[in-house]
Amino acid sequence: FKENFLMATSRAQLPKTTDKKRGKISKVMREYKSGKLKSGKSNKKVVNKKQAIAIALSEAGVKKKKRRRK
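^ that's the sequence the OP posted. Answer follows.
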């Protein structure tokens, strides 16, 4: 069973977030889709969607929902 981090972007699975945090997440994802999202100090373009989601959640200050291991 492989964890799917893309599922964390749906509103139902995000922890309780404010509109401000949701706006930040959507802004970062728009940057990723347009190819303008850069990562950290290296300033390299982000090409992996999972990495973009991790950056978005971290910038918004949202913790990823923890899943139970089976």
